[in-house]
Write a structure and sequence with these properties.
Chain lengths: 276, 312
């Protein structure tokens, strides 16, 4: 079926409009971050005077570098533990028959839907008592818990797609169920686990409310929360330029990440939704 | 809200036969034990971090508990709930939250469907389209929210300049519209992805048959495609509604809840971490939790959305 010229131009217009809508807000933050402080109050879309000053400013202060480090460390640790625990549970959900399975699925679903503010207070109070407030574990532990439902959900959908005859074959050759899991299934499950890890890491990297309420200093505050505490390079300067530069810095790795792993992310987000 | 449907794994007989527990084979019993063992760590973490704190929040909500005077904390029954429910702030926040939720989810559904059709059917630049569409999903919400805030700030933003140097973020109506704009821009790609997965399940033959029978493109879409996509649509709407209802980041960055733009989550935050009133704040938290549960029940019971993961 050959597309008519009219159809062609219709699709092209729709595509271009969509791409512009997606890109303009991103380009705007970039352009803000390159504006010279003297021209920041100049509402043009592109900078009239370009500068790297905003970037050198944020990287010369631990107000940003420390939270960036926190974000990376907390995100990686929470993702690793979360995906590890979720794969164990997802294997059981996808593969084994045991009472309490629907209760587990129901519970993780409920947690996925939790309004985080409902947990911010009790966690704030509990963590102050236990000395976890404003520490890495104080954020890592909740992030593991909120990564788990996402992980169990995505991974069990992936695990159902694995050719399980191989597991039977391994068992016939004398492997225990645990050996069959570690030696045969885990390697097959690796792509699904990578996808899940990406989704959980994106959640941790993006999370704001807990990072904002469960920390008090840059000792554990992650980058998105740190942005809200930014001040200008001097007491009287508006922090617009620094915030924009920091926003670009925390966005770029994620955008590159998303573009590199595009197929996996799409597969992960949609696997559970349709196949259930 | 426990899922009632039994999880049945495709292509596998259900081994646990509850009527004949004693006759369970050694293998079935080992399978059970392994199942519990594998789930145990995840369950423990979820109980400790999510389930236990919710009960603790219920306990706190029954106390008069001001963090500045922790020694004076004492049991006050339901009076915190009475205070919240009789306060106009709560109802205003609920109203704002519902307006934001309904409008943004509806807009996301329309734009998400258009984007999904575009990504699914476009003949040109399909790869580039899909890639670029993922950018708003990947961007950190706080970063995007600052972009919107500056864009609408007079003397800084191009959008503000475009609209005659107005300060829309300082007026309730326009500020809420901008919050919705930021929310819709960020999450439409997510909605589109979920809907596209549903689109790919619609058999090509059916739409072709409808075309042969003389159905217009609109009729084919509303009579064939939409009904077949219903499960995917309901899951996407359920996810996004619950997510939109707890909106916090966008509002906090754009207006900090000023000028009457506070959502229930912002109200809870202000009571907890600014007024340091744990009792009132916890009561608000629990009420938000109840609202979320009601929304989920409405979707699952009335619209018949299958809870994801229940094998339906």
């Amino acid at each position: 079926m050959a597309a008519t010229a009219k159809q062609k131009s219709g699709w092209i217009t729709a595509n271009i409009v969509t791409m512009l809508v997606m890109l303009i807000p991103v380009v705007w933050i970039f352009s803000l971050s390159f504006k010279d402080p003297s021209t920041i109050t100049d509402p043009t879309f592109f900078p009239r005077k370009w500068t790297w000053a905003n970037y050198s400013g944020i990287f010369s202060s631990s107000d940003f570098t420390r939270p960036l480090l926190n974000s990376i460390g907390i995100g990686l640790i929470a993702t690793f533990i979360s995906v590890l625990l979720a794969s164990l549970a997802a294997y059981a959900v996808a593969r084994l028959a045991f009472p309490g399975k629907s209760a587990l699925v129901g519970m993780s679903l409920m947690i996925a839907m939790f309004p985080l503010i409902s947990l911010a207070t009790p966690l704030f109070n509990i963590e102050r008592t236990l000395g976890l407030f404003n520490t890495w574990p104080g954020l890592i532990i909740p992030y593991i818990a909120f990564g788990l439902p996402l992980g169990i959900y995505t991974l069990s959908a992936f695990f159902r797609e694995i050719p399980w005859e191989l597991e039977k074959a391994a068992k016939m050759d004398g492997a225990t169920p645990f050996q069959a899991f570690v030696r045969v299934i885990a390697p097959l499950a690796a792509p699904g686990m990578v996808t899940t890890a990406i989704l959980v890491f994106l959640f941790c990297w993006n999370e704001f409310l807990l990072a904002f309420t469960l920390t008090a200093t840059t000792a554990a505050r992650t980058a998105p929360a740190a942005l809200a505490f930014f001040t200008g390079s001097s007491q009287f300067a508006v922090p617009t330029g620094s915030i924009s530069a920091a926003a670009v810095v925390i966005t770029i790795p994620i955008v590159i990440f998303v573009l590199l792993f595009q197929r996996r992310i799409v597969a992960g987000l949609t696997s559970g939704a349709v196949k259930g | 809200m426990t899922a009632k449907t039994e999880v049945v794994t495709a292509g596998e007989p259900v081994a646990a036969n509850r009527g004949h527990r004693k006759q369970l084979s050694e293998g079935a019993r080992a399978e059970r034990r392994l199942g519990w063992l594998l789930c145990a760590p995840a369950v423990v973490v979820m109980i400790v971090v999510a389930a236990f704190p919710i009960f603790y929040a219920i306990y706190l909500s029954l106390q008069r508990y001001d963090l500045r005077f922790p020694a004076q904390a004492h049991f006050v029954g339901l009076s915190n709930y009475g205070a919240v429910l009789s306060s106009s702030y709560w109802w205003h926040a609920l109203m704002v939250t519902l307006i934001i939720t309904v409008i943004s989810v509806a807009a996301e559904f329309v734009f998400g469907m258009l984007l999904a059709l575009l990504m699914f059917r476009t003949i040109f630049m399909r790869g580039t389209m899909r890639t670029i569409s993922l950018i708003p999903y990947g961007i950190v919400t706080v970063a995007a929210a600052y972009g919107w805030q500056y864009a609408w700030t007079p003397n800084t933003g191009y959008l503000s300049a475009l609209f005659g140097d107005s300060a829309p973020l300082t007026k309730t109506g326009t500020a809420i519209a901008i919050i919705i704009l930021a929310e819709v821009w960020k999450t439409t790609p997510f909605m589109a992805l979920l809907l596209m997965a549903g689109l790919s399940l619609v058999p090509e033959d059916l739409t072709k048959a409808a075309r042969v029978d003389g159905a217009s493109a609109w009729q084919r879409f509303t009579r064939v495609t939409l009904p077949l996509m219903k499960p995917a649509i309901l899951v996407a709407l359920l996810f996004r509604t619950l997510d939109a209802f707890r909106i916090f980041d966008n509002i906090y960055i754009l207006t900090a809840g000023g000028n009457g733009t506070y959502s229930v989550s912002i109200l809870g935050y202000d009571n907890l971490f600014r007024a340091l009133n744990l009792g009132i704040g916890s009561a608000i938290s629990i009420l938000i939790f109840v609202c979320v549960a009601i929304i989920a029940v409405i979707y699952i019971k009335i619209f018949g959305a299958a809870a994801p993961g229940t094998g339906k």
